[in-house]
Amino acid sequence: MATFVAEQGMDPPPVHTAHVYGATTVLTQPPMSRHDRQALNSPANPGITRPCLNPLEDQTSSIRQLLGRMFRADMRSAHQSHQGEHDGRVELIRHALDAESAAVVEFAGSSFGVVNRTARFDKDALSPMLELAAVDAAKHPRATPGYVVSHAVSRQMLCVPLSFAGDRTLTLAVVDPALAQLDMGEPLAVMLRAVWESDPAADPMQSEMTVLTALRTSFGRLPLKLYDDAFSLYQQLIGSMIMVFQPVVELDQRATGVSVQSFEALARRNDGELRAPWSALRMAHDWGDRFVVERDAILVAKAIHSYAEADAASGWQGTKPLSVNVAVRSLLSDAYLGQVSKALAEAGLHPRTLTLEISEQDPITPEPGERWPQEPLVYFHNRLTTLARELRISFAVDDFGVGYASLARMAELPLTQIKVDRAILHHPMALEELALVARVARYASDQGQTGQPRTVIVEGFDDDAPVSLYEIFQLGIHHMQGYFSGAVASTTLRELEPAVQERIASLVRGTK
Q: How far is CA 48 from CA 43, 45, 51, 226, 336, in A?
């Protein structure tokens, strides 16, 4: 373009810059050789790469400082209220934002009521701002994560909607927060809402991770410092979990034949918890493969080592099989598989003891931009076949009946067992579906591809299930997992009590 302009014979001839009242703006550049162009485009320090600037980069320091004020124990302890859970969070937020006061306010139309508040929140004095906030809440109930109401010369109120019910909006109102905090804008509102939805007093580590994950899901890629903070924190969060073992029971019509066939390792925050910490475990998927693989690597190592110790303490003759959950993406990671082999060797467990359960909730598809050499199911089948041969471990499908479940996936993958989700038990056609699963489990054996049919395990059976153990047993399904056995998941390995064996046997016979 520069050459073309120069060849037009303009008088006076054009120059490379145009002068204006202000900064000089470059319009054209003289012709440049390819060598000069490459030199100009080369990084200043060869070998060093830099990511593109993130829009949140300017807020990184403020975000990290706010997280520190909220979640460091020495800062929280002096500012926890003893007036209830909600009041404690309100006071924590007030302190973290260095605000005059804070409250949770319910707006309904033009009216409002204070649900709970910190000591200096004066409803009467703040009524003009609360009335303005009520108008905004009615006008834009879900349009923004937060907004600022101003009144008089310098007073400001940050409003963050927390929940909605009809025309009612529960809102966090923070009076005169520090301007440095308020300047964060939308990220601040996202963080405060995440704090409210978590439990910073009882579980500060998970609460802080919840806040970082909220930023991730709201804004996408985070600045590297925040990403690294989150990865380190997530390692600590997963590392703080313990593994408990839930028995898989083999059914029989005779009480002496009812026994523990194997155990599944389940993650818990502490030994007394009955439920899995699903929110913490699922956070990894909001961050991507690195978090998913790290989560699974930490948990499988913890499960293997804990199981070896529990097995040694049990005094049983022979080690029963162990199942551990794994994501599809982890099975594509050599680093994860190396951790599995290392943990088995350190614990002294034979690889055949271990079965990795692949959740049906995980898609078997390449990531955007990723290329697999074969169709996804074929590629993954070949991957599992190679791993089973080289590592000598087994694979199972978990949660069949939910997520990405398909007969092709269940029938074509090289699996030793199929776990049926409890959702099938409560389906109107439960028996028909279970019969189909049993036939699929026998298919490879019927075709001479394997010596034995795959084991089918039904999870979550309880007394409320519309199908009976007798009906399930008659389909050829002889393994169950769940609290129906009376065996609670524990850090120790236990055999079934004789009374429990007799009860289960009577259910299988249909006599109870």
A: 8, 6, 10, 21, 28
Burial of residue 443 (number of CB atoms within 10 Å: 0-12, 13-18, 19+): middle
pLDDT digits (tens, 9 = 90+) for 73-117: 554 454 454 444 446 899 999 999 999 999 999 998 888 999 999
Based on the structure, what is the number of domains in the chain?
A: 3
Give SS3 for 28: coil
E strands, 17-154, are 17-18, 25-26, 101-108, 111-117, 147-151
In a domain, 109, yes or no: yes
pTM, entire model: 0.84
- What domain range is 87 assigned to? 60-227
Are residue 297 and residue 418 in the same domain, yes or no? yes
Q: Do 496 and 484 contact (CB within 8 A), yes or no?
A: no
How much is the pLDDT for 255?
95
CA angle 243, 249, 251 (to 5 degrees): 175
Helix (H, G, I), strand (E, B) or coil at 403: coil
Is the same domain home to 291 and 342? yes
Same domain, 26 and 85: no
Per-residue pLDDT tens digits for 306-361: 999 999 998 888 899 999 999 999 999 999 999 999 999 999 999 999 999 998 77
* Domain final position from 196, 227, 258: 227
Distances (CA, A) of 161 to 131, 141, 238: 15, 8, 31
Specify the residue for token string 């009242």: 21
Which residues face 174 on adjacent strands?
102, 158
